[in-house]
Amino acid sequence: MGAKKKARASTKAPARAKRKAPARKAAPKATAQGHHKPANSNEPRLSGRPMWQGQLRLSLVSCPVAMFNATSRSADISFHLLNPKTNNRIRMIPTDPDTGAVERADLVKGYEISKNHYVIVTPEELDAVKLETTHAIEIERFVDEKDIDRLYWNDPYYLLPGGKDGAEAYTVIREALAETGRIALGRVVMHTRERLVALEPRDKGIIVYTLRMGDEVIAPQDAFDDIPSAQPDKAMIEIARKIIEQKEGAFEPNKFQDRYETALRDLIRRKEKGEKLVTAEPVEEDNVIDLMAALKKSLKSKGAP
User: Fold this and answer.
1) Digit-coded pLDDT (tens) for 87-99
2) In the chain, where are the structural domains located?
3) CA within 20 to 30 Å of 176's CA: 49, 121, 138, 296, which one?
4) Quick count: other Cβ atoms within 10 Å of Cβ 284?
């Protein structure tokens, strides 16, 4: 099963057809990340190429799988740096402060152990410490979803069977996860780092979430330690609670848009048309507010009695 499904051509021609129907044009390939897209192209699409391929293993059961990004930022507006005298895009050239420009291919990796002192690591040495998880997701444990603190959830990926031969084993693992209601934990090497991952059955497939390691998450107690412990006015809390009730609703992500990205797209379209842009006057804000008055005003603005 690949990232794209080919449309099946009909095996029967219409009765009145005297000649072979013209072949359908192949669907355009997914635009590679980093290639130019029009400013109004903001529909996320599954990449044509997996970002990782390997084996999914549950004890002695394994199958080839391919992992694809479940999210995309390719529609975000990005800018290039240009030379205003020529309008040419500038090139980033690695430079040594003593000798000047150097070839990127000649560079080596170094770890700074003290100021301006490095340990040089060769590609051969990096290969020597590669783990088996470089090419496999080994399921190690099964847990309840509620046991994973949301602080640890990271990026989602779609995990698809790597071919027809592995589809049956893939389906067995997915169905077992669905029936037990468990989340599978495993490890995989992505972008030269070993990551903890959670596997969740969804529809006919499996979603993989990278999870943050224990040494990546700052304890909430450390972050919130300096917040005063005093309880606010109960009347204020009651008004705030009513405002929350007025704004309750279903999670509908399509109703939320990045307003800054939308403004950028509008700016680019207007620039393309040669429109004269007008700068809006800055809005003055008063940082000193009466909290109770602001809460009551917010409540009334929603039509509360």
Assistant:
1) 999 999 999 999 9
2) 52-75+129-216, 231-248+289-305
3) 49
4) 5
